[in-house]
Specification:
The protein is an alpha+beta fold. The chain has 14 helices and 23 strands. The strands form 6 sheets. Strands 3-23-22-19-18 form a 5-stranded mixed beta sheet. It has a 5-stranded mixed beta sheet with strand order 13-5-4-20-21. A 4-stranded parallel beta sheet has the order 7-6-11-12. Helix 9 links the parallel strand 6 and strand 7. Helix 3 crosses helix 12. The radius of gyration is 23 Å and the shape is globular.
């Protein structure tokens, strides 16, 4: 039991891992009830990790760290004055989800992605939802991520969101809700696959006896989904991964996925457009390209249309896309659904397009563009989480209950001067998960980013990326803000 007294040092290797563990008061802990009992889904996992003992666990955590270092699993933080790449922090106590709980999330995530795809098809087409005033026209057209020049251009297969990263959090009531959508260039799935590989090597018996759903077929599933929306050409679809280059913060992931998918990793200079078709330069001459899994933002993708100074993209790419000669994953213009001021309307979108009630809820949100919402936010800054609508990675955000008076005053001025740029939400008391620290096993807050792959149909990677706030008391899980990750185990059998 987590509240039992720690075993004496002489217990050595067999000192149970979770002895003395105490969840944060008022938080939903993923492993233990407030009274200290194990949650049913994790009983077997807790027992097996306890059998290892703390010293054995410590040694295996060091082994996992060494494996990440050797594999070069890194990311970059552009704002870091020290520069360079960092090893992605990894905690080897897994996050565990029961099969029945995951089944609900799986269904709800597919519903959410279907909603987002329907909305994007509509706002770049007939705009029925705007005409019916379900979503305010000014809010959509005022989004910097909305690209009105793309109206009337339908992507191959009608799929906009081929890869979605939907961020979920579990509140104090134990219910998962959607925190935000990532439909442009969601990252992080390579860490899911690397985390799993390391866990299977470091804890082979614990993993093998826990009946965990596999994640290793993600690259194959992704390639098949992308090939399924390729323009009809009468040949095997030629899929490439387009990267901005090795200095990008997610370059490890770009090269990792290209290798696992069996696709070429290309930069903008490796592609060219001729007769509104895309070709790759190869040693055997030009090769037609059908699908581009692009890891470059819209702004830099085609200097003929967007940033004319960009050297990262491909001149003429939008012309080829508009003619239906190449599929882009994800599609251009998706950023409008990542706009946090659009997020509050997703439940209404689900009802409008699918005639269904949302399966997964979301966080109540104040849109500062609205006069009444703005007034409430300005009066309650210290009680709220305020977010810039087009920022990510934990930037442009104020956690009011943990901010200083000066920080609250500064953000109040920001919101007052540009209300459209901000939304606000009550602070969600994120769930916690036991995490290995220098002081032993302690609770740390976590979120979850499942990945949904869509071609002719949608598939959800079992589990996804659990991000963990490694700093005691922190709510910010982003790697750029000091967070790490855990392997997420969806149990096919709860024994």
């Amino acid at each position: 039991m987590p509240r039992s007294a720690p075993a004496p040092a002489s217990a050595g290797r067999k000192q149970p891992l979770f002895n003395g563990y105490r969840p944060y008061p008022g938080c939903y802990d993923e492993f233990f009830l407030p009274e200290g009992q194990r949650r049913p889904a994790v009983t077997g996992v807790v027992r097996r990790l306890n059998e290892l003992g703390r010293e054995e666990f410590r040694m295996r955590q060091h082994l996992a760290d060494a494996m990440f270092l050797q594999s070069g699993v890194t990311f970059s933080v552009y704002s870091d004055q020290q520069g360079g790449e960092r090893i992605f922090p990894f905690d080897t106590i897994p996050r565990v989800l029961a099969a029945d709980e995951w089944a609900v999330l799986d269904k709800g995530l597919k519903q959410r992605v279907a909603t987002l795809n329907a909305f994007l098809n509509d706002v770049y087409g007939e705009q029925r939802i705007l005409k019916d005033k379900i979503v305010p026209r000014a809010l959509v057209e005022g989004s910097p991520a909305f690209l009105p020049s793309l109206r009337g251009i339908r992507p191959p297969g009608g799929v906009y969101v081929h890869i979605a990263g939907i961020d979920l959090v579990r509140g104090a009531d134990g219910q998962f809700v959607v925190l935000e959508d990532n439909a442009r260039v969601p990252s992080g799935v390579s860490y899911v696959l690397e985390n799993r590989m390391v866990m299977k090597k470091v804890y082979p018996r614990v993993f093998g006896r826990s009946h965990v759903a596999q994640v290793e077929d993600y690259p194959l599933r992704l390639r098949r989904a992308l090939a399924s929306v390729a323009p009809r050409s009468g040949r095997r679809a030629h899929v490439v991964v387009l990267t901005p280059g090795r200095y990008n913060s997610a370059y490890f992931e770009h090269s990792f996925l290209a290798r696992r998918m069996g696709c070429e990793l290309v930069e903008g200079q490796d592609l060219f457009v001729d007769d509104d078709k895309v070709f790759a330069r190869t040693t055997r001459g030009p090769a037609p390209v059908d699908v581009i899994y692009r890891r470059i933002d819209d702004t830099f993708l085609d200097p003929e249309v967007f940033n004319k100074d960009s050297l990262l993209g491909v001149p003429g790419l939008v012309r080829a896309y508009a003619k239906g000669n190449v599929a882009l994953a994800n599609a251009l213009g998706n950023g409008v659904v990542d706009d946090k001021a659009i997020y509050p309307y997703v439940p209404e979108m689900t009802r409008f397009y699918l005639s269904e009630e949302p399966i997964i809820g979301q966080v109540p949100t104040y849109i500062c563009e609205r006069k009444d919402d703005l007034s409430y936010v300005l009066d309650n800054v210290p009680k709220l989480v305020i977010k810039a609508v087009n920022e990510a990675g934990g930037y442009g955000m104020l956690v009011g209950p943990r901010a200083s008076r000066g920080e609250c005053s500064e953000f109040r001025d920001r919101v007052r001067s540009k209300p459209r740029n901000y939304i606000a939400q009550p602070l969600v008391e994120l769930s916690t998960c036991p995490t290995w620290t220098r002081g032993g096993v302690e609770p740390r807050r976590v979120d979850l980013r499942p990945y949904v792959v869509t071609g002719t149909q949608s598939w959800v990677l079992p589990g996804g990326l659990t991000r963990v706030a490694l700093r005691r008391g922190s709510y910010v899980v982003n790697s750029s803000q000091g967070g790490g990750s855990k392997d997420t185990w969806v149990l096919e059998d709860a024994r």
